[in-house]
């Protein structure tokens, strides 16, 4: 009987995604790091909020971060 192989967590993905109480994946929006002068206040306000990950990306990210769920 050999040792059970454990998957390695992708550390960059682990830092970019977090899991909500109901198990949904949340990520931060891109586009807030620079060139903010020409963006409207409304747009910058929306970029501050986290976004729930949708579609086929969820399955991919769950494979990268297996022990967060």
UniProtKB/TrEMBL annotation:
Report a single Gene Ontology molecular function.
structural constituent of ribosome
| A GO cellular component annotation in the UniProt record | large ribosomal subunit
Which GO annotations describe the biological process of this protein? translation
The entry sums up its family as follows:
Belongs to the bacterial ribosomal protein bL35 family.
PANTHER family cross-referenced by the UniProt entry: 54S RIBOSOMAL PROTEIN BL35M, LARGE RIBOSOMAL SUBUNIT PROTEIN BL35M
Spell out the NCBIfam families in the cross-references.
rpmI_bact (TIGR00001)
Q: What is this protein called?
A: Large ribosomal subunit protein bL35
- Gene source species: Thermosulfurimonas marina
């Amino acid at each position: 009987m050999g040792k059970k192989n454990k998957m390695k967590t992708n550390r960059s993905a682990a830092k970019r995604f977090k899991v909500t109480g109901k198990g949904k994946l949340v990520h931060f929006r891109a586009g807030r790091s620079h060139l903010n002068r020409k963006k409207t206040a409304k747009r910058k306000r929306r970029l501050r909020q986290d976004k729930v990950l949708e579609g086929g990306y969820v399955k991919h990210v769950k494979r990268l971060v297996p022990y967060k769920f």
